[in-house]
């Protein structure tokens, strides 16, 4: 098999000693015995003895064409091609009509790269024997080598008429059809090969890869799964099937294929590694670790396997060991940019932001084409307190410059119908359409947008993993496409072919983004929304969608490459359906206020702890709960910082990550949450609001620093809980601790306040969002450049205010 997973043309020497073609021309029983002896030695791999036997025969019968032919055959196997050619010429000189000799002469010429002469020899062989299908196949192979694929197809088709049961010929023909991108014909031929031999695993594998390349994941998986059922399949192919199924998120069947492979040969390190990835996908972490360690054992020092061991430790929340394993990989290969990127992720997740930024930056330096690491770098940079708004903006612009410039002058032309009132095709691209925070914001709006009669919604899901949330969301739309296996070029071509009018990014610089697809500008209008608090840095991104609390144009327009599209509220929020009821304010029974933080640990930097410490010192009896943390050993830096601030450990309670129900229940112990900076909370702030717990936040200068303030403003709590600076933060926090009755009233009414807010008015968001889309479209139809505008609700109508 070739590395790309498709068929390799079968080039074996067919019928070199076929009885039909290679009859002995001398009726000598002794000669026949000597020939048989040579044949037997050749079959046993004793080529030197076989050669000596044929040479001995030729001393007795120098005119025996068959002996010259057999001598040539054994010389071919010894890779002495020039000598083999001489033997075949000798056979032909003795018998010019000897088709097998002409055929094997062609094989020798092909090995010597005299391809045109080889084609001539095959033609002569076919001329003497028109049913010599092996010669037709060999001629077809040679024609492919001289870039005459159409003529090669004719040869393969003639050969198939003579031998319709040969799966090898079907695969050769399919290989050329694939080269010519005749995919429908390829599928037809491969299916014929499978009909001829239902246990032809290679044909199923080729079929699966073709479907995969064309984005047809369902049929690809069907083909790959069929291979697992075939009784006799090579270890190599079973391993390859497991690898492909892993990449599509089908970990159950990947595991089956890989266990079969290892049952046949337990020493294949790559199969152990792939099995580990299947176990990791199934969250069977102990088995995953065993598999990766087995891969290391059988391979020696392969850095990839140490990286995967690190992935298992990270999945367990053991970031210290994850870092240690990844560093082992980098000892073996210091330039392993993927390992450097992973190291950055573990530093980020353990709150070591400076180390994370440096790791991601180094990963990009090692491989400038690795846009994933560049996005990680930018995302992490937005967590640094020392970074100014100008620095953050400029770094994002450099991302756009680097990747858009690399595309050169490649541009799509649009033939979208210019009609301002027609129905619009709207495409959403995301890798987070499963049980993920983004869904809490996006699903209610998607459900409403899908009902719009003048919108046709397309969803391009960039994640092979699907769950019950994915299935629920699929039901809203007619066009849901899985695109994780498509390159940026292929995805852009698909979107352009779908004639999407407005394409919307839901990821920004977060994981599984497809910003390089957007850089290709497959749709005439493109916008970013929900997934990332900040600019993409791409000039090909026309708009960033938000609301006035979050991105007031007068204050933040200079932080965006995109123009701003302002709607009354940019997101809805879907609370957890089985969330516990709101309980009474804990401070009333505890006798002291309890602060809480459920933000990611990478948001909790040294400056944040200094501010929180100042507030905790100002209220000596206060305590604090931290939730959503990694393993305790990965939290030592956090505890050290708090100790440095004079906060003793007996005032602190730490909880590791847990399930959603238990996470929400922890809010029963918290009176007020404290927000982080410069990257404030979004989802966690809303979860807390739903549980009756307001968050004390500090509005920041960067976009990521405005999320908390925006959310609290939408529920009318900005005067009490949105601070304008560190001193105001401590002042407001201290005041709240003395107003327990008011805090209790807020708590008991906060869920209803949230329900009454725009967060739960999905119709308002969907209607204003549609209005914004229509305005973008009208500007494009009028040949006007994108411009910042605001959708303003007036009674039951919407007005547009443009910022020129």
Describe the structure using short key phrases.
single chain; 804 residues; alpha/beta; 9-stranded mixed sheet; 6-stranded parallel sheet; elongated; disordered N terminus
Rg from C-alpha positions? 34 Å
Helix/strand class: alpha/beta
Oligomeric organization of the protein chains: single chain
Portion of residues in beta strands equals: 5-15%
Mean of all residue-level pLDDT scores: 91
Q: Strand order across the biggest sheet?
A: 3-2-1-4-5-6-7-14-15
Distance between the termini: 60 Å
Large-scale geometry: elongated
* β-strand number: 15
Helix content: 40-55%
Which sheet architecture does the biggest sheet show?
A: 9 strands, mixed
Low-confidence stretches: 1-26
> What's the number of helices?
37
Walkthrough of the structure:
About 55% of the residues lie in helices and about 10% in strands. By secondary structure, it is α/β, with parallel strands linked by helices. A hairpin with a 2-residue loop joins strand 14 (about 790-795) and strand 15 (about 795-800). The longest helix is centred in the C-terminal third of the chain and has 20 residues, at about 760-780. It is elongated. The two termini are about 60 Å apart. The model is unreliable at about 1-25 (pLDDT under 50).
């Amino acid at each position: 098999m070739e590395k790309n997973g498709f068929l390799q043309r079968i080039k074996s020497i067919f019928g070199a000693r076929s009885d039909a073609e290679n009859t002995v021309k001398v009726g000598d029983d002794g000669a026949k015995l000597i020939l048989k002896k040579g044949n037997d030695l050749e079959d046993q791999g004793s080529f030197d003895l076989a050669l000596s036997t044929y040479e001995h025969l030729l001393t007795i019968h120098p005119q025996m064409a068959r002996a010259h032919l057999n001598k040539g055959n054994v010389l071919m196997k010894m890779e002495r091609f020039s000598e083999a050619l001489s033997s075949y010429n000798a056979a032909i000189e003795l018998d010019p009509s000897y088709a097998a000799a002409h055929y094997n002469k062609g094989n020798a010429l092909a090995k010597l790269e005299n391809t045109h002469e080889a084609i001539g020899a095959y033609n002569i062989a076919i001329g003497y024997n028109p049913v010599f299908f092996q010669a037709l196949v060999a001629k077809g192979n040679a024609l492919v080598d001289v870039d005459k694929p159409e003529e090669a197809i004719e040869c393969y088709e003639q050969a198939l008429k003579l031998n319709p049961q040969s799966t090898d010929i079907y695969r050769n023909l399919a290989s050329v059809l694939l080269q010519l991108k005749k995919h429908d014909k390829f599928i037809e031929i491969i299916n014929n090969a499978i009909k001829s031999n239902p246990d032809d695993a290679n044909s199923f594998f080729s079929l699966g890869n073709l479907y995969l390349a064309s984005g047809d994941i369902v049929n690809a998986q069907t083909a790959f799964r069929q291979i697992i059922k075939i009784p006799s399949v090579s270890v190599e192919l079973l391993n390859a099937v497991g690898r492909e199924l892993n990449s599509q998120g089908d970990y159950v069947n990947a595991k089956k294929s890989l266990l079969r492979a290892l049952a046949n040969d337990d020493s294949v390190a790559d199969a152990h590694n792939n099995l580990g990835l299947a176990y990791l996908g199934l969250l069977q972490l102990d088995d995953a670790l065993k598999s990766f360690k087995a891969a290391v054992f059988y391979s020696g020092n392969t850095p990839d396997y140490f990286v995967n061991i690190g992935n298992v430790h990270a999945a367990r929340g053991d970031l210290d060991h994850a870092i240690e394993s990844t560093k082992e990989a980098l000892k073996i290969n210091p330039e392993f940019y993927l390992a450097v990127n992973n190291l950055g992720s573990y530093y980020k997740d353990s709150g070591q932001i400076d180390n994370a930024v440096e790791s991601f930056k180094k990963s990009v330096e090692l491989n400038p084409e690795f846009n994933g690491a560049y996005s990680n770098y930018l995302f992490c940079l937005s967590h640094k307190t020392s970074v100014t708004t100008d620095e953050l903006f400029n770094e994002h612009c450099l991302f756009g410059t680097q990747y858009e410039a690399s595309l050169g002058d490649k541009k799509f032309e649009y033939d979208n119908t210019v009609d301002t009132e027609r129905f619009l095709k709207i495409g959403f691209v995301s890798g987070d359409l499963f049980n993920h925070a983004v869904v809490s914001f996006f699903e209610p709006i998607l459900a409403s947008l899908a009902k719009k009669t003048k919108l046709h919604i397309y969803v391009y899901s960039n994640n092979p993993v699907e769950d019950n949330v994915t299935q629920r969301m699929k039901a809203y739309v007619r066009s849901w496409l899985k695109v994780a296996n498509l390159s940026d070029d292929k995805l852009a071509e698909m979107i352009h072919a779908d004639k999407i009018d407005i394409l919307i990014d839901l990821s920004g610089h977060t994981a599984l983004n497809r910003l390089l697809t957007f850089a290709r500008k497959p749709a005439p209008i493109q916008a970013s929304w929900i997934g990332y608090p900040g600019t993409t840095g791409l000039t090909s991104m026309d708009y960033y969608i938000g609301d006035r609390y979050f991105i007031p144009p007068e204050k933040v327009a200079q932080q965006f490459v995109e123009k701003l599209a302002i709607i009354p509220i940019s997101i809805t929020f879907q609370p957890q359906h089985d969330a516990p009821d709101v309980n009474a304010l804990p401070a009333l029974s505890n006798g002291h206020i309890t602060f809480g933080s459920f933000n990611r640990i990478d948001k909790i930097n040294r400056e944040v702890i200094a501010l929180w410490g100042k507030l905790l010192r100002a209220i000596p009896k206060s305590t604090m709960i931290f939730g959503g943390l990694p393993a305790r050993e990965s939290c030592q830096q956090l505890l050290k910082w708090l100790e440095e601030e004079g906060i003793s450990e007996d005032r602190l309670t730490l909880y590791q990550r847990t399930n959603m129900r238990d996470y929400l229940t922890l809010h029963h112990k918290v009176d007020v949450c404290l927000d982080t900076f410069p990257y404030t909370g979004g989802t966690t702030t809303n979860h807390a609001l739903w549980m009756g717990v307001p968050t004390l936040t500090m509005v920041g200068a960067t976009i990521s620093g405005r999320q908390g303030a925006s959310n609290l403003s939408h529920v009318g709590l900005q005067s009490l809980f949105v601070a304008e600076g560190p001193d105001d933060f401590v002042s407001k926090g201290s005041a709240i601790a003395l107003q327990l009755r008011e805090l209790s009233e807020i708590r008991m009414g906060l869920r209803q306040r949230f329900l009454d807010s725009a967060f739960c008015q999905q119709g308002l968001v969907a209607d204003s969002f549609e209005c914004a889309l229509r305005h973008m479209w009208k500007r494009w139809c009028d040949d006007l450049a994108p411009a910042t505008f605001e959708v303003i609700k007036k009674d039951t109508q919407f007005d547009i205010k443009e910022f020129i």
